[in-house]
Amino acid sequence: MKKQILTAPGGESYPILTGSGLINTCGQEISSIVKPCRVMIISDTNVAPLYLEIVRKSLADAGFSVNTHVVSAGEGSKSVAVFGALLESFAEAKMTRTDLAVALGGGVIGDLTGFAAGCYLRGIRFVQMPTTLLSAVDASVGGKTAVNLQHGKNLAGLFHQPIGVYCDVDTLQTLTPHEMADGAAEAIKTGILGNPDLFSIYENGNPLSELEDVISHAVAYKSMIVTEDPEEHGVRKLLNLGHTPAHAIERMSNFVISHGHAVAIGLAMMTRAAVKRGYLESDEGTRILHTIARNNLPVVCPYQAKEMAEIAAIDKKAAASQITVILPEKIGRCRMEKIAISELEALFADGLEGQA
Ligand code: GLY
Q1: Which of 155, 174, 193 is the last residue of a domain?
Q2: Ligand 1 within 6 A of 144 CB?
Q3: Does the beta carbon of 239 lie inside 6 Å of ligand 1?
Q4: Both 70 and 133 in a single domain?
Q5: What is the domain-level CATH number for residue 334?
């Protein structure tokens, strides 16, 4: 079991536990940071049949009074309608300011639960129990919460830090190769940003047999960034490497291309653009592209630069007429560049140039 600590805004910190068996012992673990209270576990139709009863029992045995709320699996549940229904469910269960929400699932469940917990009664506490690699290495840590609007991804949300993150690595064993690859994309992103050891697990190693190390490397880097810049005024923008094209790709595919796969294409695009613009040596660029492909992820974008730029212009990261884009300089270091929205098409075009 690995225990890491993230220092949240205001100097509060929360534990991030990664290890085997946490699904069974979560009640004990959570009761060490919260007195028994009413709990609402939020999960989805894929995860609930596997783990909801185990988590419910563990929390009940630890003295919590447990309610559950299950939503349909998939990105469609990150909607205003599902968010509203969850708030009503909190109210129906008579949840108070001292009660607790538990997000049991992947990024959709974590984002939805965190947003509802942040809004209900102007904010109640929540914990994350990620059951996907993508959520374990990125989304469950750092307090970003959101739902999608018709106009784009994550356009309604707030920063609301969890009070604990509990990742049982055994739950990752049931993931499909496609879901594992989704998580690999975010882990490779973190490696490119600031952790060459993590990158090398994906470049040469066997990540599936080193999941605890993968997650703790990613959590260590992300905790450092979030501690320094919890609300993304500066250095946290680095974590958006590849995400500006990725969000456009997800939307243009009608979410058929999953988040991790879209991030992989976005990483490949920013890598090619960085080489073309002279920021990144071409052999390092080649290593990044090979590493993405080695982990069953796409490096070729099916869309044109112009249409992607139009969609990305409404991305929430666009402030007024400018947007911050992230470009690799070497494996383990990236640069932030503020560009005009009107320059996005040329950047994407550089990212598409030379793709197979
Ligand atoms: N997923 C990027 C962040 O949490 O800032």
Answers
A1: 174
A2: yes
A3: yes
A4: yes
A5: 1.20.1090.10
Same domain, 140 and 107: yes
pTM: 0.94
User: How many structural domains compose the chain?
Assistant: 2
Q: Domain range spanning residue 66?
A: 2-174
Q: Which atom of ligand 1 is nearest to the CA of 240?
A: 2
Residue 200 burial class via C-beta count within 10 angstroms: exposed 0-12, middle 13-18, buried 19 and up:
middle
Tens of pLDDT along the chain (356 residues)? 899 999 877 778 999 999 999 999 999 999 999 999 999 999 999 999 999 999 999 999 999 999 999 999 999 999 999 999 999 999 999 999 999 999 999 999 999 999 999 999 999 999 999 999 999 999 999 999 999 998 788 889 999 999 999 999 999 999 999 999 999 999 999 999 999 999 999 999 999 999 999 999 999 999 999 999 999 999 999 999 999 999 999 999 998 999 999 999 999 999 999 999 999 999 999 999 999 999 999 999 999 999 999 988 876 555 568 889 999 999 999 999 999 999 999 999 999 998 87
- Best residue among 138, 241, 316 to mutate for probing ligand 1's pocket (most ligand atoms within 8 Å of CB) is 138
Residue whose tokens read 């680095």: 238
Q: How many CB atoms lie within 10 A of CB 37?
A: 16
Any atom of ligand 1 within 6 Å of the Cβ of 141: no
- 324 and 242 in a common domain: yes
**Cα–Cα distance measured from residue 224 to residue 231, given in angstroms and rounded to the nearest whole number:** 13
Whose alpha carbon is nearest atom 5 of ligand 1? 239
255: left (phi over 0), alpha (psi -120 to 50) or beta: left
Question: What span, in angstroms and rounded, lies between the C-alpha atoms of 108 and 10?
Answer: 27
Same domain, 154 and 236: no
Clarify whether residues 76 and 194 are in a common domain: no
Q: How far apart are CA 147 and CA 213, in angstroms?
A: 30
